């Protein structure tokens, strides 16, 4: 019985056998997926829109609207989370059978915290990109300065060499 380390290539590899001589001989790639698609049994969408908490079936605990003070709301939710955890500890000690409601409240607070943090992702991406570009500019300016210094050093050495040759 013969075995192979790797499986044979898929049959469509023959479509690309003349690609190096004639790149147009290969078929065009499929168009990009738009809208919703299924992957591993779950539905996904190609749009990068953060769904609202209501769309996810979660009660929103912070103020609505475009002018949300993220720092204030995150601190408020963090305090609320700490309070709920302490209440859960008390309930687990005194009435262990009634913990489910507190766990659900903690879950709601966590989902609100995650939603607030995820809504800051575009700002974080912009800030990271700006930082990376500023570092690149700084490195390039430093490289230019290094080249200028090396050029001046080379000119100085050349002038010294010419002066030495002229003196003899």
TrEMBL record:
Question: Among its keywords, does the record have Nucleus?
Answer: yes
Please name the GO terms of the biological process aspect recorded for this protein, alphabetically. regulation of transcription by RNA polymerase II
The primary location reported for this protein is nucleus
Q: Which GO terms describe its cellular component?
A: core mediator complex; mediator complex
The molecular function terms of the Gene Ontology recorded here are: transcription coregulator activity
Against InterPro entries, the record matches this protein to:
Med7/Med21-like, Mediatior_Med7, Mediatior_Med7_sf
Coiled coil where? 133-160
Q: What does this protein do?
A: Component of the Mediator complex, a coactivator involved in the regulated transcription of nearly all RNA polymerase II-dependent genes. Mediator functions as a bridge to convey information from gene-specific regulatory proteins to the basal RNA polymerase II transcription machinery.
Q: What family is this?
A: Belongs to the Mediator complex subunit 7 family.
Please give the name of this protein: Mediator of RNA polymerase II transcription subunit 7
């Amino acid at each position: 019985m013969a075995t192979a380390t790797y499986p044979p290539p898929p049959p469509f590899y023959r479509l690309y056998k003349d690609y190096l001589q004639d790149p147009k001989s290969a078929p065009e790639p499929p168009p990009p997926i738009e809208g919703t698609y299924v992957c591993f049994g779950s539905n996904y969408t190609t749009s990068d829109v953060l769904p609202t908490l209501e769309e996810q079936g979660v009660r929103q605990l912070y103020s609505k609207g475009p002018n949300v003070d993220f720092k204030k709301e995150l601190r408020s939710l963090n305090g609320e989370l700490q309070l709920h955890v302490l209440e859960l500890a008390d309930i687990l000690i005194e009435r262990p059978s009634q913990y489910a409601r507190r766990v659900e409240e903690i879950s709601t607070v966590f989902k609100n915290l995650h939603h607030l943090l995820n809504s800051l992702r575009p700002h974080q991406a912009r800030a990271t990109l700006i930082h990376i570009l500023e570092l690149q500019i700084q490195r390039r300016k430093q490289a230019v300065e290094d080249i200028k210094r090396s050029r001046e050093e080379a000119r100085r050495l050349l002038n010294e060499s010419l002066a030495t040759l002229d003196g003899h």
